[in-house]
């Protein structure tokens, strides 16, 4: 396990579409509490069960399902403080997907 782990840490995640989140990971790395700081859902918060694996030193694959049914999969690189994300959600009875990139700032 890399010394640069997500567990017990908080990051501000700035997404390429202008949305900004504050992501706080539990000390054991099994849950995530996020708060939307900027964007259409500003003020939304949720705590989700988190599935995580270190896939390379300092690089984590994270996934969760939100109460709305949105799924989120992220590759979080703690060495470069970058994220690649895939979100899927229901849109007019069909499953839609969005790819995004973003940056992390330790909070």
Task: Describe what you observe in this structure.
The protein is mainly beta and 107 residues long. The chain has strands at 10-15, 20-25, 31-38, 45-49, 51-56, 59-65, 71-77, 82-91, 94-106. It has a single domain, classed as Beta Barrel (Lipocalin), CATH 2.40.128.20. 0% of the residues lie in helices and 64% in strands. The chain has a nine-stranded antiparallel sheet, with no helix packed on it. The chain is globular.
Keywords:
globular, 107 residues, single chain
Can you summarize this structure?
The protein is mainly beta and 107 residues long.
Helix content: under 10%
Distance between the termini: 22 Å
Low-confidence stretches: none
- Mean pLDDT over all positions: 95
Sequence of strands across the biggest β-sheet: 4-3-2-1-9-8-7-6-5
Radius of gyration, in angstroms, nearest whole number: 13 Å
Q: CATH homologous superfamily?
A: Calycin beta-barrel core domain
Work out the count of structural domains. Answer: 1
List the secondary-structure elements in sequence, H or E. EEEEEEEEE
The total of helices stands at 0
Overall, the morphology is globular
């Amino acid at each position: 396990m890399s010394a640069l782990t997500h567990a017990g840490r908080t990051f501000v995640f700035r997404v390429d579409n202008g949305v900004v989140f504050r992501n706080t990971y539990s000390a054991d790395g099994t849950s995530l509490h996020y708060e939307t700081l900027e964007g259409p859902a500003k003020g939304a918060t949720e705590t989700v069960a988190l599935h995580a694996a270190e896939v390379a030193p300092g690089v984590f694959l994270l996934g969760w399902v939100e109460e709305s049914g949105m799924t989120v999969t992220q590759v979080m690189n703690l060495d470069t403080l970058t994220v690649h994300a895939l979100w899927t959600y229901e849109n007019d009875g069909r499953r839609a997907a969005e790819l995004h990139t973003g940056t992390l700032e330790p909070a």
